[in-house]
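Morning F.,

Quick status update on the modeling queue. The single chain you submitted on Monday has been processed. Sequence for confirmation:
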Amino acid sequence: MILGENMTDLFFDISAINAEAEQNPARLISLSEEYYNREIKKAAEAVQAMGDGPKLLMLSGPSASGKTTSARKIAEYLRGRGVQAVTVSLDDFYLGVDQSPVLEDGTPDFETIHALDLPLINACFLQLIKEGRARLPRFDFTAGARSDRWRDVSLGENAVAIVEGIHALNPSVTESLPTGSLLTLYVSVQHGISDRGDMLLSSYDVRLIRRMIRDFHHRASSPSNTLSMWSGVLRGEQLYLRPYKDGAKLKINSLLRCEPGIYRKTALEMLSSVSAADPNHSLAAGLKRGITRFIDIDPSPVPDTSVIREFIGGSVFEY
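Structure tokens below.
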């Protein structure tokens, strides 16, 4: 179903979401997953329609948009139809802490595209398309440096490498690649959730809540620390992602209508830990006001392939 503007507003309105959550939360989860999976299917079918020869799907999106899960699910869909698909993270091309550009305060700037090894990116991706094989680096985030263990990737005649990262649409990455072997995709939270037209949670709020929960459980980052980094994250997106997103041939909305109810209990606990004296208290209070309006939803029916699992844990995919 293609939703017009008014239908989209109703579709992402809290009254409809809470009513469905109260009546049949498992069905709300199921329908939310179906909506997202249709988006995945359309993207995978567009890759299949590209024709013969090794191909690259350049997949980009802002922080906590579900890029990694989307890449994994597209690859899974293609493999299920006999198409070889591999995933590649641009993060593995980081130069490392010692070689990264720095911000005005002297800290490494990991958001800039110049934190990546651009000559190596161009060489590897050209080799993948022209020769169907390449040796790709791995980045050791614990050590903050390139690993000694590289990765050999081979692509068959009709195979696709799904390249995922915030800079995947940047011309510095794509302009040297043959356009006939290239497809671009932008994954994002395209809508907020409103109450009869008044915004409760913006698309930025949804992504911040996702990131806060994920980083607390999987990256040892406190809620306050995640909130304090958010303005810098948005600055990086404005500089290095927004100028190129409209050039993407395909777009996926990764927002699931059941998400706020699933995140509600955990998010409120985390946001309540931000003290009144904390510089991030105002931001935390605003998020609390929005998410408290939703009905709690038990996450147990959420599939292990869901984009939600990227943030709450329990995914079948590795991140």
